[in-house]
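Chain X:
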Amino acid sequence: MNDFAASNEHESVNDSDPQPQAPSGSSLRRSPLRRAYHGRMLGGVAAGIGDYLGVDPNIVRVAFAVLTVAGGAGIPVYIACLFLIPEEGTDASLASSLLDSVQTH
């Protein structure tokens, strides 16, 4: 057996070593869902959802467009997200801000 085959054979034996894992007490924390400032086209909804899910915001935009064309649900869903998802840097959504202003008057 030549040296190359012997080294490959040795490497395949070590491939069964377990992969490093996160410590058992820690969990990967996802950042909260927020309407994004960066990558914003209208209200930052698609960019925020894309950031939250870890996908390209254009995929989310296409999903909204498909929902709009395939029954008209895309526009109401987008508007609902616009009112219910807080903007980056805030904890209050537009809907909660409007409710607070109505309740205080």
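Chain Y:
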Amino acid sequence: MRRLVLIPAILALGLLALVGFGLMDVRGSRWPVKTLRDRDRGLVRFDPVDATIAELGRLPRPAESALKGRSRVPPEETTVYRVQGRLRYTLRGLDQDIHLIVEDLEDPRRVMIAEIPLPLFALGSGFGDAFRAERVEVRRHRGGRREIVEVTGVGFFDTHLRRLEGRSSNGFELHPALSLRFLADR
């Protein structure tokens, strides 16, 4: 009887380890790219480029074939962007990432998602401490609803374009968010 419990537990831990270390993808979601544990991470330029949410929402979406596998789409996914916007709200995804739904300061109809990964699922990225600090900051601001924020993160085209509120029309996100600052309200 004990073996019947032990074997599934070992298999589950093994599967979690494969996903956690970026050796396996989750439903084609490009998990290693999302958590900076992919083989192309060395191509990412970490000097932030200032942009607006509206500008990033107008980037052309690559062909779906380019979004298969665990490779980055240059130059958008090898660039770190810094945006300022008004935080509409936050939500926790099924993967326990914190989704920041941020609207453009000039055109509030333009929105995008920035995601803070669960540090456990970003092992090996070198950014676990930053992700933990960002999550503390979100809690400290009680979600920060309607506050002005500055988010710095790696560009990423999400493969799931379902109509999730807050998703830009081209599926472009900042994932992972590398830095989050709450600014004084304007």
